[in-house]
Design a protein that fits this description.
Strand content: 5-15%
Largest sheet: 7 strands, mixed
Structural class: alpha/beta
Order of helices and strands: EEHEHEHEHHHEEHHEHEHH
Number of strands: 9
Shape: globular
Distance between the termini: 35 Å
Oligomer: single chain
Length: about 260
């Protein structure tokens, strides 16, 4: 599946690999825009809408093997041989799955606040309830949708994030499929060891990457290193963009030398 993308050319002449930015669940290609605006200085940037999100095609299938294949298909369509992949949450897992499917297409890899594990938890049921309530209420504006969602969700930041995908009274993600396939999204199929340096950027306050997952993470990514962003939750790049960009640039510069 070819994904909907936004492509930007690097501002400066360079011979760096392009960077592909991969958003998480309920997101869109805009979500990692704060990283794109900085990194486009010296890398071509591709931002993608994942399947069942944004303006990308819909499918009843929503697992990491399929998502990784979508990334390969999108690289092929753009005639990109190899790229640096930066993924947040679900997007980070899609990139990690790509290391099993097409390891030669990955130059470097950054996973933001996600581990290669099956979480066995449902963290998004309130979000699904809020999204469905907006649909049931036949809200037509973001203002109307927000007032419905505040009955279900306390965090205004989460509401505003979700509303980015509410356009002309419609959600831009495929709610029934995301609900149906949710066990695959929080789940994980172990991948073979990827023997290259990878950067993991957990939020210090987030439950997604903890010491409990260290063994599983290193078994699959033996050269991984973590750069924990203190005081940040799951939306690390939105909460502490400068710290995240510093960590990414350090990793890219080290690997380039």
């Amino acid at each position: 599946m070819k994904l909907n993308i936004r492509a930007q050319s690097a501002q400066n002449l360079h011979n760096n690999s392009p960077i592909v930015l991969v958003h998480g669940l309920f997101g869109s290609l805009d979500n990692l825009g704060i990283l794109a605006r900085d990194l486009v200085a010296d890398h071509d940037i591709i931002q993608v809408d994942m399947r069942n999100h944004g303006l990308s095609p819909r499918s009843p299938e929503m697992n990491y093997a399929a998502m990784a294949q979508d990334l390969v298909d999108t690289l092929d369509d753009q005639q990109i041989e190899k790229a640096i992949f930066i993924g947040h949450s679900m997007g980070g897992k899609a990139v990690m799955a790509l290391s099993a499917l097409a390891p030669d297409r990955i130059d470097r890899m950054v996973a933001i606040d996600i581990a290669p594990v099956d979480y066995h938890v449902r963290r998004h049921d309130e979000i699904f309830a809020a999204i469905n309530a907006v649909t049931d209420a036949q809200a037509s504006s973001r203002q109307q949708a927000a007032s419905v969602m505040r009955q279900y969700l306390q965090e205004e930041g989460v509401i505003q994030f979700l509303l980015k995908s509410f356009v002309d009274g419609e959600w831009r993600f495929n709610v029934p499929v995301l609900w149906d396939q949710y066990p695959h999204i929080v789940g994980w199929e172990t991948v073979p060891a990827w023997e290259h340096p990878a950067l993991f950027i957990p939020g210090g306050n987030s439950p997604y990457v903890t010491e409990a997952y260290r063994g599983q993470l290193l078994a699959q990514f033996p050269q991984a290193r973590a750069h924990v962003i203190a005081g940040a939750g799951h939306w690390v790049h939105a909460e502490k963009p400068e710290a995240v960009l510093r960590a990414i640039r350090r990793y890219l510069n080290e690997q380039a030398n």
